[in-house]
Design brief:
This protein is of the alpha/beta class and about 450 residues long. Helix content is about 25%, strand content about 20%. The relative contact order is 0.10.
């Protein structure tokens, strides 16, 4: 059958599509989530029960706005793989469970995994002249999940961009197509993870400047979204570097501009030479997004490729730059929780820390403000609070950067690491941290 006939035959209303969902199904939403399908599913309360939802955690997840977790707890139970501000309260109130991601920064679900997918709901672009739809500016594991799910539902959004790489699905692989329901949100007010953006202050610019001194001409960069790390592309002095490369999970604001200006060429990369590789793009301005769309320099691949340490380390001089919540005096890096209170997710931090450590000439960097809560708490602490998730073990710790300088940890003893970290802690906390270090690591 011609793909156009297939598409026409499978194009239905959202209400008709969700009739395929059965009680006790495992339903997976990908980011950005499909509003029409989500709201149509909510409307089936009374007909179905025991539905398990795995949501990507993005700000567009329509089920949050519908309030169905409070109103229909018997019908739906939620799992999320990344804790963003929008759902922190749900996690804290135990109205949502947290699914621990695998090494590629996404949950291990699908074929051959403990949790097979019954229904996969995802936004896609309209098909091109060959019958292929794009997954847009973020891929992660959408392609694999679509191929493993029993039923695939695509919400067709004409605003979704196309990219090069492996970022597409054919009409024949989608069981139901529905028309997109706009969320009414104005683009540009959030970052790639859907969080409100307030811009950097002097602290973030200072940290970015220190991080920039670690970067050398020809390095292949990864910069994580969130906290202080994501400002390095704009305020780390990278515009003065030459022939930088890009292999990352997300693509933070400023990367598109570096490519436009000929700073980031990828010419010294060992694999994907001349290409900017990531599993998500478009964290910057509309100008950057327009530049990235249909640009062969940018290639989008699944997490299983972009976040695979065996792939990452094939490039020489990988510099992985990420944020954290806290670092203890031995170099244990916490980026997901304070005690048992979840505030984020692992993302690709561990994958890139491993990849950078295995890369010839590679370096791993954690960029972190010295304090939290307006200076009331030190982020460099003697011992992590019980229950705190260690996102990156001390065996992979390399550079820790605050607004007070750079602590170099690789190859150092516990005592030496402690003194390096004390030196970049906020001055108000250094004396107490030094005292604690002496108690813990000196006779």
């Amino acid at each position: 059958m011609d793909w156009k006939e297939e598409y026409k035959k499978r194009l239905v209303s959202a209400e008709d599509a969700v009739q395929a969902v059965k009680s006790n199904d495992y339903v997976v939403f990908a980011q950005p989530e499909a509003p029409a399908l989500g709201l149509a599913l909510v409307s089936r309360v009374g007909d179905i029960s025991g539905i398990r939802i795995m949501g990507g955690g993005g700000s567009d997840l329509p089920i949050y706005d519908a309030g169905w977790y409070d109103s229909f707890p018997d019908a739906f139970s939620l799992e999320t793989s990344y804790v963003l501000p929008l759902i922190r309260d749900l996690i804290a109130q135990k109205k949502s469970d947290f699914i621990v991601s695998g090494l590629f920064g996404v949950p291990d679900i699908g074929i051959g995994m403990p949790k097979p997918i019954d229904v996969f709901m995802v936004q896609i672009s309209p098909p091109d002249e060959h019958g292929f739809c794009s997954f847009g500016n973020s891929l992660w594991m959408k392609k694999e999940w679509a191929r493993s799910a029993k039923i695939v539902m695509g919400e067709v959004n004409s605003n979704i961009i196309r990219t090069y790489g492996d970022n597409y699905i054919h009409v024949s692989e989608v069981d139901y197509f529905v028309e997109h329901t706009p969320t009414g949100k104005v683009p540009g007010g959030t970052d790639i993870l859907g969080r409100k953006t307030t811009g950097p202050g002097e602290l973030e610019k200072t940290v970015a400047g220190y991080v920039g001194t670690i970067v050398r001409d020809g390095d292949c960069l990864e910069i994580g979204v969130g906290g202080t790390a994501e400002w390095v592309a704009q305020f780390g002095g990278l515009e003065k570097k030459h022939e930088l490369g890009w292999h990352s999970e997300n693509t933070v604001r400023g990367i598109g501009t570096l490519v436009m200006n000929g700073v980031m060429t990828g010419s010294r990369k060992t694999i994907n030479v001349g290409k900017c590789v990531a599993t998500a793009v478009g964290g910057g301005s509309k100008e950057e997004m327009d530049f990235i769309a249909n640009n062969p320099i940018f290639e989008v691949y699944s997490s299983s490729y972009a976040l695979n340490p065996r792939i990452i380390c094939q490039n020489d001089n990988v510099v992985a730059i990420n944020s954290a919540i806290a670092v203890d005096l031995t170099g244990q890096i916490a980026a997901e929780s304070v005690g048992t209170v979840m505030t984020s997710g692992s993302g690709g931090q561990l994958s890139f820390a491993i990849g950078a450590n295995l890369s010839r000439g590679g370096r791993s960097v954690v960029a972190i403000p010295s304090t939290a809560k307006g200076g009331q708490l030190s982020r460099i602490i003697p011992i992590l609070e019980p229950g705190t998730v260690v996102s990156t073990p001390r065996t992979l710790a390399d550079h820790v950067v605050t607004e007070y300088g750079i602590a170099r940890l690789k190859g150092k003893t516990q005592r030496e690491r402690a003194m390096e970290l004390v030196a970049v802690a906020h001055p108000d906390y250094r004396a107490q941290l030094k005292k604690e270090a002496e108690r813990l690591y000196w006779p």
